[in-house]
Specification:
Layout: H1 7-14, E1 26-27, E2 35-36, H2 41-48, H3 52-55, H4 69-82, E3 87-92, H5 95-109, E4 114-118, E5 123-129, H6 133-143, H7 149-156, H8 165-179, E6 186-189, H9 192-206, E7 211-215, H10 220-228, E8 233-236, H11 241-253, E9 256-262, H12 274-284, E10 288-291, E11 308-312, E12 326-330, H13 337-347, H14 354-363, H15 367-387, E13 391-395, H16 402-405, E14 418-423, H17 426-436, E15 440-441, E16 451-453, H18 455-460, H19 464-469, E17 477-480, H20 486-498
Parallel strand pairs: 7-8, 7-9, 9-10, 10-11, 15-16
Antiparallel strand pairs: 1-2, 3-5, 4-5, 6-12, 11-12, 13-14, 14-17, 16-17
Bound molecules: pyridoxal-5'-phosphate (PLP).
Length: about 500
C-alpha cells in the first residue's frame, strides 16, 4: 500500500494551476485527484453544458460528479460481462448500495434496473438502460456510495487489498479527540455524503412518517438527500431570525424527524442560531444535526448543542485532495444517543477501501496545524477583500452572522478557510476576475493549496433561479484559502481585481 506523499501539494503551493492550458489537469497530480482544473469561467459553463472541448480533457474530477477514469474502465469491464445493447453499469462496493441505486433509478426514471453480483471482482453492479443514466448519475452524486477509484484500480490490476483496521482506528481516534468524545461514538464512511445518507436513513427509521427540516441554504447534495429519500423536507432557506420564528410555529403543528443545519453554511458562510435551534429540537423531541465540514472541529465545538454532528473528511481533515471520507459523531449526552447508535450499528457496513483509509490516515496527521495556518491566511485575505472598492460582498464567518458563530468558536479556533465573493457589476467582472486569478481553480475546498471556483455555476447550474431566490448569486466566486504565504495570496487577488474596470 503506498500512502500519498505531501509532494503534489507542495508543487501546487509553488505553481498553481490557473492558466487556460491547464484545463482538465488533475488537482493534485494523482490519478485519484478529487479536483481538476477549470481555469476560465467559460470552462465551467462548458463543463456544465457537457461541451466536449472541456469534458474530453477530464480524467478526474470531483468523484461524485465526474466518474474517475479508473471507475469508467471498471464500469466498461462490468458492461462487457452483464450489459446488453443500450445498457450501462455503475459499480458499488456493497450489495446494499447497488440495491439502493436500482431502487432510485426505477423510481426516478421509471426504467427497469437490476443488481448483479460480479463475483470475480467482489463488487455489485447496477445495470440500467442508457436512458436512465441521468438518474443513476444523480444517485451516485447525492449518495456518495459508489466505488472508489483506488478500489477500481486494484480490481483492474487484479490486486487484493490489505487490512486497514489500525488506520481506520487511528482516524476514528483523531476525529474523536478533535470532538472530545470516545472513539466509540464516531462512525466512518467513504464520503461525507455517504455519512449523511446513512444518518438520514437511521433517523427516518426512528420516525418513518415524519418530515425533516433543513434550516439554512446547505451544500447542494444535503438538500437533495432530504428531498429524494424518506418522508420529505421543509426547507427554510435563509436560516435567519424570521425562519426561526416560522420554524417555532411549525414545531407546534407538525411532528418532525430531524432538524438539519450547517455551521457555517456552504457557500454563504452564514451561521444559524444553534442556541435557539437546540431547545426547538428538544421541544419537537427530534435530533438537531449539524454539518461542521466548513468550519471543521478544529475551529468549532457544536456538540454542546447538537445531537449528531457529521462532516466530510474529504476537505480540511485530508487537505491533499486525493481521497474522500466522512464521519458521523453521536453526542453521548444526547437523549437520543442510545437509540441512534443502535440504529447506526444496524445500518453501518464497512465499505471503506483499505488503501483509501491508509491515505486518509496519512494525510490527516497534521490536520489541526494546517487548519490554524489556513485560518490566519483566510482572515488576512478576507480583511483585504472586505475593504476593496471592487468587491460588493465578502461572505465569511467573521462578517456574516458572527454572533451565531462566536458561541461555538474554540479558544484557539478561527473562522476557517472558506469565503465567497461577490463583485461590483458581477456579470461583467466575475468572469474577468476569475480568468485572471492566479490560484488553482477547480471544485473542492479545505485543501492545503488555495482553490477557487464559480460555486453556484458548478453546484446549481440546473437551478440558478432557485439559488438566487435563496440569496445565492449566480456570479458568486468561492475561495478555499490554503497555506501559501499570505502576502503572496493577497497580491494575487489584488492583481485579479485590477483586471476588472474600476467602479464609475
Ligand atoms: C458543507 C459540506 N458538507 C458535505 C459535503 C459532502 O462531502 P463529500 O464530498 O465528502 O461527500 C460537502 C462537499 O462539498 C460540503 O461542502
Amino acid at each position: 500500500m503506498t500512502p500519498s506523499t505531501i509532494a503534489p501539494t507542495e508543487q501546487l503551493l509553488r505553481e498553481p494551476l490557473w492558466r487556460p492550458d491547464d484545463l482538465g489537469t488533475p488537482i493534485p497530480d494523482s490519478p485519484h485527484a478529487v479536483s481538476a482544473c477549470l481555469p476560465t469561467w467559460a470552462d465551467n459553463i462548458g463543463y456544465e453544458e457537457q461541451d466536449t472541448r472541456v469534458i474530453s480533457r477530464l480524467t478526474t474530477g470531483y468523484p461524485r460528479f465526474v466518474y474517475n477514469q479508473l471507475c469508467r474502465r471498471l464500469f466498461a469491464e462490468c458492461e462487457r460481462r452483464i450489459a446488453r445493447d443500450g445498457e450501462k453499469c455503475l459499480v458499488f462496493p456493497a450489495e446494499s448500495a447497488a440495491r439502493r441505486c436500482v431502487e432510485f433509478v426505477r423510481r426516478r426514471s421509471k426504467h427497469t434496473a437490476e443488481v448483479h453480483e460480479i463475483p470475480e471482482f467482489g463488487v455489485w453492479a447496477a445495470r440500467f438502460p442508457v436512458e436512465a443514466a441521468g438518474a443513476a448519475k444523480a444517485f451516485w452524486q447525492h449518495s456518495g456510495i459508489g466505488i472508489s477509484s483506488r478500489q477500481a484500480a486494484a480490481i483492474l490490476e487484479g490486486r487484493r487489498a490489505g487490512d486497514a483496521f489500525d488506520a481506520q482506528q487511528a482516524i476514528r481516534t483523531r476525529v474523536a479527540n478533535c470532538m472530545h468524545v470516545d472513539p466509540a461514538h464516531v462512525w466512518l464512511f467513504p464520503t461525507g455524503m455517504a455519512a449523511m445518507f446513512s444518518l438520514q436513513r437511521v433517523l427516518q427509521r426512528r420516525r418513518p412518517e415524519f418530515r425533516s427540516v433543513q434550516f439554512g441554504f446547505p451544500y447542494v447534495d444535503s438538500l437533495k438527500i432530504l428531498e429524494s429519500f424518506g418522508a420529505g423536507v421543509h426547507f427554510f432557506p435563509r436560516g435567519d431570525r424570521s425562519d426561526l420564528e416560522q420554524l417555532s410555529a411549525h414545531v407546534e403543528s407538525e411532528e418532525l424527524c430531524a432538524i438539519y443545519t450547517e455551521l457555517p453554511a456552504n457557500p454563504l458562510l452564514t451561521s444559524p442560531d444553534l442556541t435557539a435551534l437546540s431547545p426547538l429540537a428538544r421541544e419537537a423531541d427530534c435530533p438537531l444535526v449539524v454539518d461542521d465540514t466548513v468550519a471543521s472541529c478544529v475551529n468549532v465545538d457544536v456538540l454542546d448543542v447538537a445531537d449528531v454532528v457529521w462532516s466530510s473528511l474529504t476537505k480540511f481533515f485530508s487537505g491533499v485532495g486525493d481521497v474522500t471520507g466522512g464521519a458521523v459523531v453521536i453526542n453521548p449526552d444526547s437523549p437520543h444517543a442510545g437509540e441512534i447508535a443502535r440504529l447506526m450499528q444496524d445500518d453501518w457496513e464497512d465499505t471503506l477501501w483499505p488503501e483509501d483509509v491508509a491515505v486518509l490516515e496519512q494525510n490527516s496527521r497534521d490536520f489541526p496545524q494546517r487548519v490554524h495556518t489556513i485560518n490566519r491566511n483566510a482572515e488576512a485575505l478576507a480583511d483585504m477583500l472586505h475593504e476593496h472598492p471592487r468587491v460588493a460582498a465578502v461572505h465569511y464567518p467573521k462578517y456574516s452572522t458572527p454572533e451565531n458563530y462566536a458561541p461555538h468558536l474554540r479558544s484557539d479556533g478561527g473562522y476557517g478557510g472558506l469565503l465567497s465573493l461577490e463583485l461590483i457589476d458581477p456579470e461583467r467582472n466575475a468572469p474577468r476576475f476569475y480568468d485572471a486569478l492566479r490560484v488553482c481553480k477547480g471544485p473542492n475546498l479545505g485543501m492545503n493549496y488555495t482553490l477557487a471556483c464559480p460555486f453556484t455555476i458548478l453546484a446549481h447550474y440546473g437551478e440558478l433561479d432557485f439559488a438566487e431566490r435563496c440569496g445565492v448569486s449566480r456570479w458568486l466566486i468561492r475561495v478555499s484559502v490554503g497555506m501559501e504565504p499570505a502576502e503572496q495570496l493577497i497580491a494575487r487577488f489584488a492583481d485579479a481585481l485590477d483586471a476588472t474596470p474600476p467602479p464609475s
